[in-house]
């Protein structure tokens, strides 16, 4: 996948060996890029990311900074979120979650990157 280099691949393989054997929701929660709601009764809170494996999340953040520039799928998603009024960091984390879901699906199905098979 454009934006995922040797360092990211090695980090994901060594720190998240479950990837490819779990659901997309579990994968994003495991890495810590899933939005967790903070609500109780009538109290409405913001959704935040928390928990997960911080080392992988840090590596994915840097990979996403690169992928936004060289991968048309993530660039379009990032720009769409910014146009919708999302803060930049929220848009980057949403793209990170999309990357985790795509990588999990690629590992599960045993396929290589194909930008035509990815939905925006």
From TrEMBL:
Lineage, uppermost ranks: Bacteria, Pseudomonadati, Pseudomonadota, Gammaproteobacteria, Vibrionales
Pfam families: Transposase_20 (PF02371)
One biological process term in Gene Ontology: DNA transposition
Domain Transposase IS116/IS110/IS902 C-terminal: 1-79
Protein's name in the database: Transposase
Database matches in InterPro entries: Transpos_IS110 (IPR047650), Transposase_20 (IPR003346)
GO molecular function: DNA binding; transposase activity
